[in-house]
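Standup notes
- DV: blocked on the single-chain target, sequence here:
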Amino acid sequence: MHPLFFGRSLVVATMHGKERVIAPILERSLGVKVLSENTFDTDQFGTFSGEVDRKGTPLEVARAKCEAAMSITGADLAIASEGSFGPHPELFFAAADHELLLFVDHKHHIECSDTLLSTSTNFSKASVPDLGFLKSFADQVNFPSHALILKVEGLGNSTIKKGIRTLYELEKTYEELVTFKMPITVETDMRAMHNPTRMGLIGQLAEQLVRKILNSCPSCNFPAFDIVSKNIGLPCSLCHFPTKSFRSYTYKCASCGYHKEIEFPHHKRFEDPTFCDFCNP
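- DV (later): unblocked, structure below
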């Protein structure tokens, strides 16, 4: 724990149950008292199912969520999550969940964030030619423990059915939508309260973020002594020329300005020639 946070009220900016995994971690590690705020509408900042487009980067949206939640509750501590789903940036044909968590302390002007990229996701979407295909799709994405969304393409948002968690509801919804005689789409419901896999990743990221928050400045003990720059130039093990891999991280205190460079953050002094532009152009 850190004395700057102990006993203060913190709001989790969510309407999708994320406080279930975030609150215990923050209360245990930071000593805060997490507020329950059930009237906060985070869908105004964007929805996965497309009714509302996300405006801004994940960090900007998470910041807006924190500001809005603090304004409603009067708390000066907040945390918000923002998820993004799609193809993995490096692994072909793999879906990925990119989670971001942002912690804001208005009183002490602290903003600390962290991210997690994982292939542990059931994120998927498909056109539905018939009920048999729909049931097969459901089996592949961990239904019914993970909810589904059905909608008719081309009819706007009026036909979107979210949070489908039973086979009866799935079949009934399909039978209703098929009467429109237009293409039907099924997709995984990525809202945290309907997606246990995503909820678990958010909890994992919360543990990760807390470690960053509690990393205090060696000079003044101010929290969130964090990385401000990642410096490339790790030498190649064959030619010893600098590569684009990270040689060091620079940490800086947001309060006193103390900074420190940590060399070889990934515990290696040389890079494999495979990643050298000179040896492997």
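- Follow-up: The radius of gyration is 22 Å.
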